[in-house]
Amino acid sequence: MIRKETTAFGVNAKDDKIRYESSSGGMFSLLAMEVLSIGGVICGAALSDDCRTLTHVIINNLDELAKIRKSKYFQSRIGDIYGKILDILNTGKMVLFSGTPCQVAGLKKFLRKDYSNLITIEVICHGVPSSKLWRKYLDWIEKKYGKNVKSVNFRSKKDSWERFGVVEKLDDEEYIYNHHRDNPYFALFLSNCCLRPSCYSCQTKKIADISLGDLWGIEEIAPDLDDGKGTSLVLINSEKGKRIWEKVKSKTVFQEILYERAVENNVCIERSVLKPTLRDTFFGDMNRMQFGQLAFMYRYPTLKLKVKHIIKIVFMRKLGGR
User: Fold this and answer.
1) pTM of the entire structure?
2) Crossing angle between the packed helical segments 27-37 and 239-248, to the nearest 10 degrees
3) Does residue 156 sit in the same domain as residue 304?
């Protein structure tokens, strides 16, 4: 159900550098910079040095902002971060927390009460892939190239924002680039086979002060904002969200849009993805297959190809049983 105060905007940061370094229009960076400017802290997800784990961390300066900026497409570890946030809130400092809707819900349940100095941001979430699958993918990449992966950009705008790609940087400065639909890991993500069980019946949508995503369908919804550099979809869900939006909007080019138009191309704002019939067999096979085999079997989203792949799976299992 839409909250009465929810309003939707398409937003571009005026600073092109911020937009280029962001997955969409740079709205998260602007909100984070505002909170940091008043002595607050930001909590978001950062990749480990070996790129194999994703962990929520707290930063308190601009130099660290890059590590929690941009989208990452597997499950982050919360650890003891909620307790650390509580300690900071009790000092009176402002805290900006960014995560999936279920992580925002978890934080609110942990805190047990509303804090005026807490602002929450949720990503408009398609679903959270398995971290084990991500590690298998990295192992496959490193074995294939004989080199270590040093960094990953899930949302490179090398071609354009709409045609974003996945970039892995190897330890000899070589870069691997694939359009996201050609990248086998991202293709598995889009197939919906590799998501957490709860993602197929999510109960925590639009629970944060602000929801952030991409303004897909911009060419029809807000063509004046469509310059190919990335545009944020911003949903203001509360009075706290509205107050901080008022503080940063002068640093943006924005357009208010109908909520219904925003949902047309971001259906996960309101409903969960359907659970694929192959989801259960996928996780069984993930535990026994190499990543290349797994991607070959499951990456295609159409029903016709899935049926063909089921036949191949059965055939391979019979061969394995000989």
Assistant:
1) 0.89
2) 90
3) yes
